Amino acid sequence: MSKVPGWLGRVGASLTRVGERLDERRREAVAEDELPPVPDARVEARGSVPAPPSYAPVVAARPDPVAAIPWGIRVAAEAGWRLLVLAGTLWVLMRVISAVQLVVLAFVAALLVTAMLQPTVARLRRTGLPRGLATAVTAILGFVIMGLVGWFVVWQVMENLDTLSARVRDGIDELKRWLLDSPFHVTESQINDIAENLSDTIGTNTEEITSAGLQGVTVMVEVLTGILLAMFSTLFLLYDGRRIWEWTLKLVPEQARHGVAGAGPRAWRTLTAYVRGTVLVALIDAIFIGLGIWFLDVPMAVPLAVFIFLFAFIPLVGAVISGALAVVVALVTQGVFTALMVLVVVLAVQQIEGHVLQPFILGRAVRVHPLAVVLAVAAGGLTAGIGGAVVAVPLVAVTNTVVGYLRAYSKEQEARLAPPPHGATALATAPVLPPSAQRRSDGEEQS
């Protein structure tokens, strides 16, 4: 019996030691979790970075660079590089056009002449003439009329040149006498000094004047070449314009071909309306201003009327130049009073043209904002001179028509290809009958 308590004591002591060892190991595990791990030499040899300790502060990951840039800056950058591409394309296009400026202007002139003569070809074909004969008759008559107009202007100028020069000398003498008697205290010696300075300037710049004359000869050659190109282009456009347009459509991508095919005839109608309306308005201006100049006994009334007709094709600027030319001729030949009367006639006719004739004749077909007209004429004149100023406004009118049609066509295509409405959308877009029709339908259902 004495051995049993001793055995029990030894068992209890063994259990106590086991518990102490378990507690010690538990404390060692907790301490290992709290302390940084010891780097392994083999891991460092492989070049791996050890994991950070658990007590290290959490660092947020760097965001994507695209997400870090604000939305507005991204939109501006996307629009910016596209605008740069468009600007580069336009610059290259303008360089190409400037390199072949004569050909481009000749073809554009042919388009304008074709738009003016095409209705005549259509009328002749409706009478039964073949296409070739109708084209030949129209082209020959058109070219003969334009040639006669040019010859008439040159003939009238040459016929009245001596009279005009004599009257200009008389007008200069009269101006000299007016300056001497005026309150500006101008002396005869000052007038003679001005005349002498002008003579010296002309004498010292003889080389420049000669080179300008040679350059004028080159310009005349280029003008004749452009006229021949325009004539041949007009013939082919009158005879085979539809086939040329169909061939041009084949160069357009297939997805955009239907829209371009619809915009083409509308652009041509706009161009035709512009050319025919401008010719009619210019003819009315030339007739009425020419009659006013003729009644006031201003020399070269007919050539001035022809100049007014030709300059009317340059919007805004042409009317000012032709009217100023008529006033100057009246001033140096007939005096101040006649010049003022010519100015009144010119302003009256131009006001009637701007507020009555152009809105009535051109109508809605060629409705362009005045600011667009001014900017187009200025840009065309700076780019290609007089030819660019003439072409600028019809180009803007045609572009306006094409852009408007393509916008409407794209909206129609989007509406056609959109999925049909369903659910609440279908109920919201369902057509609503007027009350009278709704009562009628309810009565039919009850019957």
From TrEMBL:
The keyword Transmembrane helix applies. It is a multi-pass membrane protein. It comes from the Bacteria. Residues 424-437 have a biased composition (Low complexity). Keywords: Cell membrane, Membrane, Transmembrane, Transmembrane helix, Transport. InterPro entries: AI-2E-like (IPR002549). It is found in: Cell membrane. Residues 415-447 are annotated as: Disordered. Pfam families: AI-2E_transport (PF01594). The chain crosses the membrane at residues 90-113, 133-154, 217-239, 273-295, 301-321, 328-352, 372-398. PANTHER family: PERMEASE PERM-RELATED (PTHR21716:SF53), TRANSMEMBRANE PROTEIN (PTHR21716). Belongs to the autoinducer-2 exporter (AI-2E) (TC 2.A.86) family. This is AI-2E family transporter. It comes from Streptomyces sanyensis.
